[in-house]
Design goal:
about 300 residues, alpha/beta, Rossmann fold, 2 domains, 9 helices, globular
Length: about 300
């Protein structure tokens, strides 16, 4: 039987703020719900910066940081809540620009993601002509599921096309709805025997970009012991922080809310149940240093 994990449950991020110089903060489920920002999270990030800390928003959004920033501002997130944004889109652009996967790319995803390849030395082509598949998400995540991509997966695997995934997330909550992300198609592709390249959390490239940006902002490298990751994805944020050697605050009121609440039928996102949280972490084999219901 796996021992139960017992992270320190925080009521407020300020309880540990003095121990860190920087936050790498996830967006969906932590800063916003896909529709609007969480006021308490905005206050927490502002407070961290007011004490001299640096806040980098670290997101698996499959777009470069510029469009992500515009989207956040349009949503109502204030500029004074963060110092910089590093996205899975940024890491994906570097991967595609490397030329390792050829120049003819078959793009899968909504039209809002075209900024991902703008300015890169690639040609967007049909799958029958492609050297690789580049997936930012489902073409219509409001109506489609990974089942709608069975033919794409079968053909791509048969032709040995690498599958570059610009968002490793499997699902995301947009308001009250749970929608599939590019990672769900990548999962099917890998299960079918295809080669998948994942560019965002929990993989190293996005953390390397974030730590380089942090060093630029601070004027020198920052020791990893002074960097705190915050996120609600057990397989992305928590695992990614662990692999990168960073302490992590697991935000339990996001994707895992129903599984760690005392009452699964009417979960309280602000207060995880310690026993259910410990069992959840043990099942996933993760041991974040801290947990908090919602970022505040």
């Amino acid at each position: 039987m796996t021992d139960q994990i017992e992270p320190r449950i925080l009521s407020n991020i300020s309880e540990i703020q003095a121990g860190y110089d920087a936050l790498l903060c996830d967006l969906w489920g932590c800063l916003h719900n896909g529709v609007s920002p969480y006021p308490a999270a905005i206050d927490a990030l502002r407070s961290f910066r007011a004490q001299g800390g640096v806040v980098i928003l670290l997101t698996n959004a499959p777009r470069p940081h510029g469009p992500v920033r515009r989207h956040l501002l349009n949503m109502g997130a204030p500029e004074d809540a963060f110092d910089a944004i590093v996205s899975s889109g940024d890491a994906t652009r570097a991967e595609v620009a490397s030329g390792r996967h050829g120049a003819r790319i078959h793009a899968v995803g909504p039209s809002r993601d075209t900024s991902l390849w703008e300015g890169l030395p690639v040609e967007i082509v049909g799958q029958s002509e492609a050297d690789a598949i580049l997936c930012t998400g489902l073409n219509d995540d409001e109506t489609e599921t990974p089942d709608d991509y069975a033919d794409l997966v079968a053909d791509g695997v048969a032709r040995n096309l690498p599958f570059v995934c610009a968002n490793p997330d499997i699902v995301v909550d947009r308001g009250e709805r749970r929608l599939y992300c590019a990672g769900a198609i990548a999962q099917r592709y890998e299960e079918a025997g295809g080669r998948v390249i994942l560019c965002g959390k929990p993989h190293a490239p996005i953390y390397e970009l974030a730590l380089a940006e942090l060093a630029r902002l601070r004027g020198k490298p920052v020791q990893k012991e002074r960097v705190l990751a915050v996120g609600d994805g057990i397989a992305t944020d928590v695992l990614g922080a662990e692999l990168a050697g960073l302490d992590c605050v697991f935000v339990t009121g996001g994707l895992a809310m129903a599984e760690v609440a005392a009452d699964a039928a009417a979960p309280d996102p602000e207060n995880p149940d310690p026993a259910r949280l410990g069992a959840y972490l043990a099942r996933h084999g993760r041991a974040p240093a801290f947990a908090i219901g919602r970022l505040r």
